[in-house]
Amino acid sequence: MIQEKEYAKRRARLASLLQPNSIALLCSAEPKIRSNDTEYPYRQNSNFYYLTGFTEPDAALVIIKGKKSFQTYLFVQPKDPQKELWNGSVLGVKKAKKRFLVDAVHSIEHLEAFLQKESEARSEFYYEFAQSTKAVQKVQQLSQKSYTRHNLTKPIERLRLQKSPSEIALIKKGMEITKEAHHHAMQLAKEGMMEYELQAEFEYIFTKRGAYSDAYTTIVAGGNNANTLHYIKNDQKLEAGELILIDAGCEYSYYATDITRTIPVSGKFSDAQRELYSLVLDVEKTIISMIKPGVMRSDLQKVAERMLCEGMVRLGILQGSVKKLLKKKKHKKYFPHGIGHYMGIDVHDSCPYKTKKGKEIPLKPGMVLTIEPGLYLPKDDKKIPKKYRGTGIRIEDDILVTKEGCENLSADIAKEIEEIETLYSS
Ligand code: GLY
Ligand code: MN
Ligand code: MN
After folding, report:
1. What is the arithmetic mean of pLDDT over 310-337?
2. Ligand 1 pocket check: which of 220, 258, 262, 369 to mutate, most ligand atoms within 8 Å of Cβ?
3. Range 8-16 contact pairs with CB under 8 angstroms and sequence separation of 24 or more
4. Residue 247 known to be catalytic
5. 195 and 322 share a domain?
6. Which of 61, 96, 162, 295 meets the CB 3.0–4.6 Å disulfide criterion with 26?
């Protein structure tokens, strides 16, 4: 649970990053049509949620900054019994005034007039360039005159880079649920099952434990399907002797988890699968052990690529000198993606990897990032020794950077070969 005081502190930090004499507008997400007049379940805009914790549509946050001081305004849907009959009750202006620590709350109907009036005395406009709500269009019209326009997304993303203790607590709560789901799947997986049956078990646990949603579409990829990186069809049968790559994490109270485990359909790794799995696991553990403040993600990437390349030469998947192979990027064919990404309100948390001047940002306490090395060996690639073909392996954990080093937030989700095999037989 995040306290109102924390949201107020985030708004104050944002205000401190804005130019004097400015006005900033941040709108809630617009509902998305699924088909004709039915909508997808609503999810709040991540930046709006970060600054308000408010989950209703048709809302806006406005910050007016003078020389140094600032005021915050929230605009919300007014109470409307007819609308609420269909869509459920809304908080309304009166209750919003009690809840939010802002200077004033108004009905959303007054937003455009407010922007028009307040803009007269201001020279700088901030709004999310990616948003195109009616209010944003209004701002765009206004700001075509003599205003300087700024993308509000940028300063907010900088604030989101380092997570607070209450944000970490929510990720940990989500991780408990994600752990239960992965262990549940390890106990249930068997030959003849459809991939979507395992997917359903994840969704069942996520919903049953109050997470309501996955943080991204679950991947359950048997055998060669794991070599399609964004495989989400999940409609094939699990065959004996294959591995299953499962990339699944719940979103709990707007915070993501992002975990991959690769497990054997029949509960035991074959010798060839053990060789590949041990290589990926060794890389993953080594990279995690390197994480501490000051380290660059690009260095983690380099070490992972080198270790995977060395391993592939050792196993006869690549031939030649490791140095030359790395230089020619030959290893990329079987490890084509990054070592990891930030995670938070978005699974791929939209926070900067570089400073404004283009310099890489080193790891800092409070950052959360995934570490996810993989090896993808397609079944029709004749250059790969036959025993390894049709295998895709990824192991992914979520890591918190701490003052001293790091904490693996998913350390309790089984990934050692013996742990996984034991879970199967329990
Ligand atoms: N589940 C998406 C990713 O691992 O990046
Ligand atoms: Mn990931
Ligand atoms: Mn993932």
Report:
1. 98
2. 258
3. 8/72, 8/101, 8/102, 10/50, 10/51, 10/159, 11/51, 11/61, 11/63, 11/72, 11/102, 12/70, 13/159, 14/51, 14/63, 14/155, 14/156, 14/159, 15/63, 15/65, 15/70, 15/72
4. yes
5. yes
6. 61
Ligand 1 closest atom vs CA 372: 4
CATH of the domain at 292: 3.90.230.10
Ramachandran angles phi, psi of 394, nearest 5°? -140, 140
Handedness of CA 362, 363, 369, 375 (dihedral sign): positive
358-390: b or e for each residue (b if 16 or more CB lie within 10 Å)? eeeeebeebbbbbbbbbbbbbeeeeebeeebbb
Question: Do 178 and 153 lie in a common domain?
Answer: no
CA 305 to chain centroid: 23
The boundaries of the domain holding residue 398 are 165-425
pLDDT in tens, 79-135: 999 999 998 999 999 999 999 999 999 999 999 999 989 888 888 999 999 988 878
Which residues make Cβ contacts (< 8 Å) with residue 125, sequence separation at least 6? 22, 23, 24, 25, 119, 139, 142, 143, 147, 148, 149, 150
Q: Look over the chain and give the mean of its residue pLDDT values, rounded to a whole number.
A: 96
Domain count, the chain: 2
| pLDDT tens column, 7-37 | 999 999 999 999 999 999 999 999 999 999 9
**What are the Cα distances from residue 324, in Å, to 328, 363, 381?**
6, 30, 21
| From 13, 158, 306, 348, active-site residue | 348
Task: Give the per-residue pLDDT at 331.
Answer: 98
Looking at the structure, tell me whether residues 123 and 175 fall in a common domain. no
The rounded Å distance from CA 247 to ligand 1 centre is 7
* CB 247 less than 6 A from any atom of ligand 1: yes
Cα(122)–Cα(413) distance, integer angstroms? 53
Residue holding tokens 């004749």? 382
What 8-state DSSP symbol labels residue 383?
Answer: T
Interaxial angle between packed helices 271-290 and 417-425, expressed in degrees from 0 to 180 and rounded to the nearest 10: 120
At residue 121, the pLDDT reads 83
